[in-house]
């Protein structure tokens, strides 16, 4: 069992089960919404249970996906592809210990020009 929340705790949740090794996304949308790059773990939606969701808001980021965030503190918490059983959960919102380590970088072709990726993890251009 893992727990997590946004900064103001208006959105709080529990994850039943182990976390998959997280990815770091460098796409333009994640950078714009998070202020840098965004790290998340993918879980089955049935593993996620909200203990508080009064401030949870969803933004339709495209025709195929939406992003969940706190309407009070602005924390970017979730990414979900429409019609799929998986949901991505922000690693920064999950309470320690998580028991996982970063596994890969994705959308590195879109990364910001102000930083380098030098940790030696696998990188996917898109």
UniProtKB/TrEMBL annotation:
Family membership: Belongs to the Gfa family.
Gene3D superfamilies in UniProt: glutathione-dependent formaldehyde- activating enzyme (gfa)
Residue span, CENP-V/GFA domain: 2-116
SUPFAM superfamilies for the chain: Mss4-like (SSF51316)
Identification of the protein by name: GFA family protein
The organism's taxonomic lineage, starting at the top: Bacteria, Pseudomonadati, Pseudomonadota, Alphaproteobacteria, Rhodobacterales
Source organism: Sedimentitalea todarodis
Matching Pfam families: GFA
UniProt keyword terms in alphabetical order: Lyase, Metal-binding, Zinc
